[in-house]
């Protein structure tokens, strides 16, 4: 998470192969994901995941525009990566407020830490990670 005079604060989030990069600037409170308003992006479930950190930290981001670029993975993975990027950026925007950090951790410890789990790799000689040939007894 870097702070730049032109862009404000930049934060990142990852989930499997999805990567989200959020930039925070002074503004009116607009949130855009891949140049689309939040209300038009994804399904209701995915939007619900994304607005969780926004609801927890409403008072900290009333004067902040958030622009997110997300790529890779599936839609839910992108939503979770976006959620993590937003939570980290809000925490940084609030100048590392300990009350906000505790609120995020009490709600879900993956908001700031992220989720490091990946898809299991395929094993040699098998079509999938755990699949084996069916055994015949007769």
From TrEMBL:
**Domain of life where this protein originates:** Archaea
Keyword terms, alphabetized: Ribonucleoprotein, Ribosomal protein
InterPro entries hit by this protein: Ribosomal_Su5_D2-typ_SF, Ribosomal_uS9, Ribosomal_uS9_CS, Ribsml_uS5_D2-typ_fold_subgr
> Record's Gene Ontology CC terms?
cytosolic small ribosomal subunit
**What Gene Ontology molecular function terms does this protein carry?**
RNA binding; structural constituent of ribosome
Listed under GO biological process in this entry are: maturation of SSU-rRNA from tricistronic rRNA transcript (SSU-rRNA, 5.8S rRNA, LSU-rRNA); translation
- What Pfam families is this protein classified in? Ribosomal_S9
**Keyword Ribosomal protein carried by entry:** yes
| Keyword Ribonucleoprotein part of the UniProt annotation | yes
* Protein family (similarity comment): Belongs to the universal ribosomal protein uS9 family.
Q: What protein name does the entry list?
A: 30S ribosomal protein S9
Originating species: Candidatus Undinarchaeum marinum
Please spell out the taxonomic lineage of the organism that makes this protein: Archaea, Candidatus Undinarchaeota, Candidatus Undinarchaeia, Candidatus Undinarchaeales, Candidatus Undinarchaeaceae
């Amino acid at each position: 998470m870097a702070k730049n005079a032109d862009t404000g604060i930049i934060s990142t989030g990852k989930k499997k192969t999805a990567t989200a990069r959020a930039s925070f600037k002074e503004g009116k409170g607009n949130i855009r994901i891949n140049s689309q308003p939040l209300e038009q992006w994804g399904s209701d479930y995915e939007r619900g995941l994304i607005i969780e950190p926004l609801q927890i930290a409403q008072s900290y981001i009333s004067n902040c525009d958030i622009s997110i670029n997300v790529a890779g993975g599936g839609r839910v993975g992108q939503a979770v990566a976006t959620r993590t990027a937003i939570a980290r950026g809000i925490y940084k925007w609030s100048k590392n407020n300990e009350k906000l950090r505790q609120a995020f951790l009490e709600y879900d410890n993956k908001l700031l830490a992220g989720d490091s789990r990946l898809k299991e790799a395929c094993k040699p000689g098998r079509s999938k990670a755990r699949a084996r040939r069916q055994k015949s007894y007769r």
